[in-house]
Amino acid sequence: MLKNLNRVKNSKLHDLIVSAEEAASWIQDGMTLGLSGFTRAGDAKAVPLALVERAKKETFKVNIFTGASVGSDIDKLLSEAGIINKRLPFQADATMRKHINAGDHLFVDQHLSHTSELIRNGVLPTVDFAIVEAVSITEDGMIIPTTSVGNSATFVTHANNIVIEINVAQLEEFEGLHDVYEPAPQGENRKPIPVSSVGERIGTIGIPFDASKVKGIVFTKYTDSPSTIVPPDEETKEMADHLLAFLREEVKAGRLTEKLAPIQAGIGSVANAVLHGMIDSEFKNLEVYSEVLQDSVFDLIDAGKVDFASGCSITLSDEKMKQVFDNFDQYRDKLVLRPQEITNHPEVIRRLGLISINTALEFDIYGNVNSTHVCGTKMMNGIGGSGDFARNAKVAIFVTKSIAKGGNVSSIVPFVSHVDHTEHDVDVVVTEQGYADLRGLAPRERASLIINNCVHPMYRDQLSSYFVEALSRGGQTPHILEKAFSFHTKFAETGTMLDKEESLA
Amino acid sequence: MLKNLNRVKNSKLHDLIVSAEEAASWIQDGMTLGLSGFTRAGDAKAVPLALVERAKKETFKVNIFTGASVGSDIDKLLSEAGIINKRLPFQADATMRKHINAGDHLFVDQHLSHTSELIRNGVLPTVDFAIVEAVSITEDGMIIPTTSVGNSATFVTHANNIVIEINVAQLEEFEGLHDVYEPAPQGENRKPIPVSSVGERIGTIGIPFDASKVKGIVFTKYTDSPSTIVPPDEETKEMADHLLAFLREEVKAGRLTEKLAPIQAGIGSVANAVLHGMIDSEFKNLEVYSEVLQDSVFDLIDAGKVDFASGCSITLSDEKMKQVFDNFDQYRDKLVLRPQEITNHPEVIRRLGLISINTALEFDIYGNVNSTHVCGTKMMNGIGGSGDFARNAKVAIFVTKSIAKGGNVSSIVPFVSHVDHTEHDVDVVVTEQGYADLRGLAPRERASLIINNCVHPMYRDQLSSYFVEALSRGGQTPHILEKAFSFHTKFAETGTMLDKEESLA
């Protein structure tokens, strides 16, 4: 391991340099760890991996708090090692998902802007060890994060002990990329969060810390895991076209200009494809105020379409990582990384008036959205920041393909099997079939529009029948409760949501 | 009608004084009206009532936008007259409710902080006539509202025409009570909303307006409808005790002081009773940052418990109205009324760190809350501000009696029949049985706690059985979808949610 002491500019800290194994040995059964990491970027790697090694010989459990999902298979390995008691606020690992759904460990699915308040207010268990990845420590005592900020500042400020992973594989040139701001406790000491434009800087270039809490500094050399984005396909391209059509209507109506409004796009292939669709559009001088900055954001910067991008992490494919990080000076003045409390803060989202684009697992005929639970029970990833954005955005858009599993699943159902975003928070839904603009519509109006515009033709009659029968019972939001989950139960029993007659037709 | 011209201090406007009938005659089929009024307080009365009269001889329909619910039977009469096309964002009238659920007219149930953004952004139809109640018009051109502010400022600013109802039954002394602030459009011109403490004033004492848009001024003399609050009963007192016990635990844990945090309490008898419970508590120097200021807030002021109350309206019983308004100088410096966009703004709610107390219709074993739809279909009142507060509060509390309809309905069900507040937004649930503090808990943990602490004993086994069976299927949020609404469907079929064996036992 290359111990590049220049990365720790405050030389008083040099004595604290230890191996990952030693740092991992300090962690005791029942402790709570606050790990850096947001959407596979900037995660603490060496100490968690050493902890997994330790678990081969010892029995213990810890709570794992992070920014969001982490890479380097850390969630997989922690889960397999059986050392997790509670995990929050987000994950996106296939193995961990299995363990969560089997009840092997607990998972608390939180709005990504909420975790830091809960820690600050002493509601969650005290963080025993903040373990955060850094490119360097400055002479005046600041941790310079790597490719994400996440909840690291909150962890560092409120933890009893701090371990810093200096990752020499991450660019020292990231110094100056970040803008770290931690709000005061709620109440009269808290001031407005002064972000009034996408690129505005309000904080410090790194995370200030109490040097007496630093227990160890570990040198590492691991690259971030590349993103797992699938390239756009025919259907995601169609969705992008529908979304662009909607945006054009907004411009025509005078509600947006060709600059649009700052864009947030959730992680995932669909949102990525939708952003990609903007490259060849007439829209220009765009700004991004998002959580994760994916390939498409940099493609838009490269295409001269995006002037500035504010995010919480940079999560790229292998190829794009090489391009961006090898030429970082070209991007530096167009980027800022902020804590997730600031990227996702209702105050800032509402002030800036974002266009928010997130992925739905399923939505219902009245516009309620399920982002998290497969068939109402099994956790996929978590709500992430979608709630922070959808509730407060100027336009909250949810996208999904109209069918899944070769047509055996309709993504539009009578009643979503889990509600993450209510009818009050969903403005526009988009599938490859079309879009439905639900703003200002009553539930009965929404149902007709969704069925006509978004549902796959193979499910249109089935959903229409449900709606017509429900209408006969009346109500603000007509439903037949005994049939509300009939699509899901039919799928569980027969492997398809499609009515038998329909399948034969 | 007493035309007290002193109430219109800008004498250039005196020529515009007309009868309510004449003002009502200007309204044309298809128009959108923005009426003042929030929780039965400060509603425009004369012109809407004249419009109802006109409907006896003419056929027309209009959209009715308000702050929230209105009094003086206006919603009832408008509904009965059959002249509503669309109504938003809230209502609480028994007759209107019937018409909504029958599909006679459309109702859009919105977060109370959202309507003004939608109007400002041109998403909702343009308001043709803003019709707002005032105590006076100042010489320098401001409308001084009466007992509520609601959406009046937004309506006045964005409407094509303005009609002002000068209500001489409302105290001229209200001048100085209000603090009117309208945010700039979303984007770079919008600045932080500078409310950093409950009593901070940030705006003007009245609503500025474009005099050229004023089409008419109508003199009226109607008192507000009194509140319909039911006095505390044994069960609401028990709920108040549980809530106080929770707050004491928070103080013990160092998360709150005896000043607590600014309190928001939703309208309704339960929330009112809970506030009443604070009169004899040790808590003191309390502050209220709420929507509606009910009897209990003034009782707390009278008891020296509340130092300051910020609201959007003052809605009192007949008796309390007399006491407060006859002695208004005693209360003046402890009160401010703000637009609902500011009382309910996520930015301010989160900054101040409120304790938010709202009423649930039902909640489920995982902590999702239904605030609006009886048996998933029939609208009760609307979500009101509960979403604005619950999502952003420091502590989001929902209260409800554990059973209703003589025990035939359990307010705790396997799966709520409509979701207004998701598991991500609900911190504490309280019934007369006890409270469950859900913060930081995974769904499986929440279910046990809710069943043990909040469910009525007559339903405990039935909900436990559901949970145990659901656990056997696994998942982050275990459910048996085919039985998820079994409580509701059983009630629809048999008149009780109770299992037969249980009822016999």
Automatic annotation (TrEMBL), chains A, B:
SUPFAM superfamilies: NagB/RpiA/CoA transferase-like (SSF100950)
Keywords for the protein's UniProt record, in alphabetical order: Hydrolase
Keyword Hydrolase annotated: yes
InterPro entries in UniProt: AcetylCoA_hyd_C, AcetylCoA_hyd_C_sf, ActCoA_hydro, ActCoA_hydro_N, NagB/RpiA_transferase-like, Succinate_CoA_transferase
The Acetyl-CoA hydrolase/transferase N-terminal domain, residue ranges: 14-168
Record-level Gene Ontology MF annotations: hydrolase activity
Keyword check for Hydrolase: yes
Domain spans labelled Acetyl-CoA hydrolase/transferase C-terminal: 322-466
NCBIfam families (alphabetical): YgfH_subfam (TIGR03458)
Family membership: Belongs to the acetyl-CoA hydrolase/transferase family.
Protein name according to UniProt: Acetyl-CoA hydrolase/transferase family protein
